[in-house]
Design a protein that fits this description.
By secondary structure, this protein is mainly beta. The chain has five helices and 41 strands.
């Protein structure tokens, strides 16, 4: 039975107030401004690996080791902010040295974190490397992150996520073909990078190394001296085929490719079944499930993930598209709910199917890993804005020309997918998308060829803007607290702009509001700049 994890806060950390005399200095406590900022808990979606954990009511919490904490604030007093602060767990989370103060204003202060802590950061990034061979210590290679959220209360509860992709390979051996004198020696991932640069505390990876071979760990889950599965991790990557290499004791090497729709995604567990015969290896199923243990096969049948619509099981990506088209072609139907955990490739197929029957307006959907995803079609871009709530993606289904109003993003983390269309704001007024300090926006272009433009400022960034695709016309204005992330884009001119951002972060007096990035096209690649 599928286990559902629900994030809950631990009991609020009580900060006792010591008795004081008139001569003692008053120290604010709890939710008062100037009180020491406290972390009540660091919850983890699904199971942790490297981290020591405690499970309370089906929710996992970090209860060991050290994490790095980032606190941002526009307060000129440096005690209200700090970068890469070490927090240790010893019965509760405590700062190792620097104490940050609570701003008591969720619009002015944010917090982010990552695990495990390291002092080796360069401009907010660190190099990570997966091993050539995963041993029984494979759990020690997991990384966790919690992107910036508003500090809305004191103490805060932090929600962690897995950075990497988990891979489990289950094997069905056709003994009649292989024979008793041969057996599997190892299974490897053959075309994945093992190194990357991690922009903590976000999920952004760049500077990928070249594709190499990584040997998975032969996992005996029930200690019966028989391998139940092969397990390890991979860096989320755009490759749509995961290369598998099976090495036999006789020295024979068999290869196969497992299709990964849309490329590998972080926070996802890929469970792959292999049928190994005398002369070849065949991929059975590729299951996309939440993080967890890699169960062995039951009678050679993989725990296959199959999405469903209205209880109707779907057997292929094309069948999924057919079902979506049929549902939304019905008169008066404007939404479709897909049951299960979706990969990026499945999402792209659903958007494509929706666009075939709905050629105006926009569509909104929630998290692909929620267990059930509802896609709702809106007649216009303006209508879709009302449903563009925290954690949702808005995807264009047609061009939207000269939109007449500002769009303000605050107190939410959302995504805009241009989907090959054009979104433009009023050609004569200073209308644009404004990202406030508590807002995070990610721009994507799932189909390619999408454009975004405004008359003066395309974006006004006080919070966080992640650019993953599309062509942006006109300028991007950032305030001192604003952050623009552009992962591994193939353009030397954009690289120089990234360096400009880094310089501004170091020397904010250079310019309080910078305008740059004119008519740039952002296309993702995996080349180190």
């Amino acid at each position: 039975m599928k286990k559902t994890y629900q994030y809950i806060a631990l009991a609020v950390l009580t900060l006792g107030m010591a008795a004081c005399s008139q001569e003692d200095d008053f120290i604010p406590q709890g939710n008062q401004k100037g009180a020491p900022l406290a972390i009540a808990s660091a919850g983890v979606a699904d199971l942790t690996t490297r981290a020591t954990i405690t499970t309370i009511e089906e929710t996992d919490y970090l209860t060991g080791g050290s994490m790095g904490v980032f606190v941002k604030s526009d307060n000129t007093n440096t005690r209200y902010k700090g970068d890469n602060l070490e927090w240790n767990y010893n019965g509760s989370w405590k700062p190792a040295s620097t104490t940050v103060l609570y701003e008591a204003d969720a619009t002015k202060q944010t917090i982010g974190a990552y695990y495990p802590y390291t002092t080796e950061l360069t401009d907010g990034t660190c190099a990570i490397e997966l091993p050539e061979i995963f041993g029984d210590d494979y759990e020690d290679y997991d990384y966790l992150y919690a992107d910036h959220v508003a500090v809305s209360t004191n103490p805060m509860s932090i929600q962690m996520n897995h950075l990497l992709s988990k891979v489990t390979v289950n094997v069905v051996i056709k003994e009649s073909e292989i024979g008793i004198n041969d057996a599997i020696k190892s299974i490897s991932l053959s075309n994945v990078p093992r190194t990357a640069v991690w922009a903590v505390p976000t999920a952004t990876l760049s500077g990928y190394g070249s594709a190499e071979q990584t040997v998975l760990y032969a996992n005996d889950t029930d200690n019966d001296d028989a391998v139940d599965n092969y397990v390890g991790y991979a860096l989320p990557d755009a490759a749509t085929n995961l290369g598998l290499r099976v090495t036999m004791q006789s020295g024979r090497v068999l290869t196969a490719k497992a299709p990964i729709s849309g490329g590998m995604t972080g926070r996802v567990h890929y469970k792959i079944s292999l049928n190994v015969g005398k002369d070849k290896v065949e991929v059975g199923n590729v299951a996309v499930v939440p993080w967890g243990t890699g169960e062995s096969l039951n009678n050679g049948i993989a725990d296959e993930y199959i999405p469903n619509i209205d209880g109707q099981n779907i057997i292929s990506l094309s069948a999924l598209k057919d079902a979506v088209r049929e549902k939304l072609s019905q008169e008066g139907v404007t939404s479709v709910t897909v049951g299960g955990y979706l990969s990026e490739g499945m999402h792209a197929a659903i958007i494509s199917a929706i666009n075939e029957v709905k050629d105006e307006g926009a569509v909104t959907n929630g998290s692909l890993l929620a267990g059930s995803v509802t896609y709702t079609v809106h007649a216009t871009f303006a209508d879709a804005l009302t449903a563009w709530t925290d954690g949702t993606t808005l995807t264009l289904l047609s061009n939207t020309d000269e939109y007449p109003d500002d769009v303000t993003i605050e107190n939410k983390t959302i995504a805009l997918d241009l989907n090959g269309y054009k979104l433009s704001f009023n050609s004569t007024d200073n209308m644009c998308i404004r990202i406030e300090e508590t807002g995070t926006l990610t721009i994507r272009d799932i189909r390619g060829g999408g454009e975004y433009s405004a008359y003066h400022l395309a974006f006004f960034v006080n919070g966080i803007l992640n650019i993953e695709g599309g062509t942006i016309y006109n300028s991007v204005g950032i305030q001192r607290s604003g952050v623009v992330n552009m992962p591994a884009v193939c353009c030397t001119e954009i690289t120089s702009m990234v360096r400009m951002l880094e310089r501004m972060a170091m020397e904010p007096s250079i310019c309080r509001e910078a305008q740059f990035l004119r008519n740039m096209s952002f296309g993702i690649c995996r080349e180190a700049l």
